[in-house]
Amino acid sequence: MDFGDVEYWERFYRRYLPPAKPPGEGEAALSTGADRGSGGAEQQLLEQDEWYLEASALVPRLLPCLPSLAEEGQLPAVLMLGCGSSRLSELLYEAGYHHITNVDFSPLVIASMQEKTRSACPTLQWLVADVTHMPAIASSSFDVAIDKGTLDAIMSATEWQTSAPAMGAEVHRVLKPGGLWLLCSFGDDRAECVDEQLSELGADADPALNRCEGRSERWHAVRERIALPAHSPEKEAGGGGALEEEEAGAWYLYAFTKLPAGE
C-alpha cells in the first residue's frame, strides 16, 4: 500500500468527505476560510479520530519548540506539511498561532478542511500542493514547518529514495534562515532520509539517552525519542495507525534548524 500516492488519499477521503468542487493545484494559496461561501459540510470528518498520532497529545510537545508569541513583531508564519484532516492546525490556532498555511496534495481534503475551519479559524490558509514541489510558496517565507506523519507516508512509497530528499530540499527552501522544521515520526532514521549528511545522527549517542543531535551543511538536527502511553491507539495498533512502523513503543520528534548559508 502506497501512502505516498495521492490517489490512495483521494479514495480514503472520498469515504468521509461530502462532494465538493476542490481547488486546483496551487489554487487558493493566499485565500482563507473566511473567503469561502456558506454551506455545511457533513460532520463525519469532525468526529473522526486522528489516524496518526493524536494532535491533542502533540501540541504540548510542540509549543515549547515554537517561537514565542510574546516576542515583538509579526506572528510567526507556520507551514503545515501534508495537513490532511488533522486538528493540529486548529489546536495551534487556539493557542495563538494564527498565521498557518496548510498544504496537502489531496484537493478533496483541502476543500473540506477549508470549509470546516471557515468560522472558527478564519485566518488559516489552505493550499493544494505536493510537499516535494511547492512552486506557489516563496523561498524563505516561513518561520516554522511542521510535519505529522507526512514524511513517514512518503517513506512507504516506491520512490521514497528520491521523494524524501526532495521534500527535505523543498522544506529547506521555504524556511527562513534560522527557521525550524518540526518532524513527528515513528522512524529513527528520518534525518538521513532527508539529508544524507545526517546519516550518523545518533550513532555515537549513549543508548540510555533519548536525545541526540548532529549537523550538516544545511541543518542542525536534534532527535528526541518519546515513549508512547501504555494504552495509546498507536501502540495498540502496532505503529502509526495505518502505517507499519519500526517501533510501536515510541515516536520521534525531530527539530531541524535551517543554517544560514556559509555557516
From TrEMBL:
Residues 20-41 are annotated as: Disordered. It comes from the Eukaryota. Coiled coil: none annotated. One of its GO terms (biological process) is methylation. Residues 78-179 form the Methyltransferase domain. It holds the Pfam family Methyltransf_25. InterPro entries: Lys/N-term_MeTrsfase_sf, Methyltransf_25, SAM-dependent_MTases_sf. Keywords: Methyltransferase, Transferase. CDD domains: AdoMet_MTases (cd02440). The keyword Methyltransferase applies. The keyword Transferase applies. GO terms for molecular function: methyltransferase activity. Belongs to the methyltransferase superfamily. This is Methyltransferase domain containing protein. It comes from Acanthamoeba castellanii (strain ATCC 30010 / Neff). The lineage of its organism: Eukaryota, Amoebozoa, Discosea, Longamoebia, Centramoebida.
